[in-house]
Write a structure and sequence with these properties.
The protein has 285 residues and is of the alpha+beta class. It is 29% helix and 29% strand.
């Protein structure tokens, strides 16, 4: 959604593209740097005399973009993002993408996935994503920062290759997991197996994971000793499955608690469903 601020900027944009202070890499200075791993892909471009433009995609997440100034400065809380023609393609149409957030303390601009994907598409078409905000260094002039499209296609091919090799999940997504069990059962459901497959895949790829805590629990229905035995068997079934998927058994600490630690009171069927669980917790160095 384009705000009133962006509408006002947009109204004069096409007549005033050359007005204000503009930062953008020239063709000869346009450089794309890729940092690639199974956990994160970062494609960045230095913006001379301003800072850095950064596309970042974490495993299990969508692409995001950040425009990071070198100097911290007070800033408007909003900027207008458009894709415009580079100097070597005069006459190409300008496309309004929308308004984006500006951190009022640092001046950093954050772009969420929908707009970040559009930026990548426009860069691939040879257009320049450009941010415009008011009040350059406290003056009446607008500040314009462009992300150069020069040398982008080859960089994008490498970036796409990195994204294809990302793990399907990141640490935050698998560090804490609760697997639920039907009443009086210890067998893993298909959903639980699928979740454990992802957890095991992540553990096998992250050498910083040192410990895996598997804790079995039950609801309060039935005899306490029977509940304790159920929680033990549930925890052991999870541990066994993780080991079968290639997780080093020496990393796993298996514990069982019966009905001692409910997450909610055992006062309803829905609550008891939540308490019949095995939790899996990863710890890094």
């Amino acid at each position: 959604m384009i705000s009133r601020f962006s509408v006002l900027l947009c109204a004069g944009l096409f007549a005033q593209l050359a007005w204000g202070v503009t930062f953008r890499a020239a063709i000869d200075d346009s450089r794309w740097d890729l940092e690639a791993s199974k956990f994160n892909c970062r494609l960045s471009q230095p913006v001379p005399d301003y800072g850095r433009a950064l596309f970042e995609q974490e495993a299990g997440e969508e692409v995001r973009f950040r425009l990071q100034p070198v100097l911290r400065s007070l800033a408007e809380t909003e900027a207008l993002l458009v894709a415009e023609a580079p100097p070597w393609r005069p006459g190409a149409a300008t496309h309004v993408i929308g308004s984006v957030r500006v951190d009022s303390a640092s001046g950093e601009i954050s772009v969420d996935p929908p707009y970040a994907r559009q930026m990548l598409a426009f860069l691939h078409q040879g257009l320049v994503p450009t941010f415009t905000r008011a009040g350059w260094q406290g003056t009446s002039e607008p500040l314009r920062v462009g992300v150069s499209a020069a040398n982008f296609p080859s960089a994008y091919r490498e970036y796409s290759g990195c994204v294809e090799g990302l793990l399907p999940v990141n640490y935050t997504q698998v560090a804490r997991t609760a697997l639920l069990f039907p009443s009086a059962t210890t067998e893993l459901s298909d959903a639980a197996r699928q979740r454990l497959d992802l957890i095991a895949l992540y553990i096998r790829n992250d050498s910083e994971v040192r410990s895996v805590y598997v804790d079995g629990h039950s609801d309060s229905l039935g005899r306490r000793l029977l509940n304790r035995d159920l929680s033990k068997k549930r925890a052991e079934s999870v541990t066994r499955y993780l080991v079968d998927q290639g997780v080093d058994e020496a990393m796993i600490i298996t514990r069982f608690h019966g009905e001692r630690y409910p997450v909610v009171p055992n006062s309803s069927a829905a609550n008891r469903d939540r308490n019949r669980r095995v939790t899996v917790r990863l710890e890094r160095e």
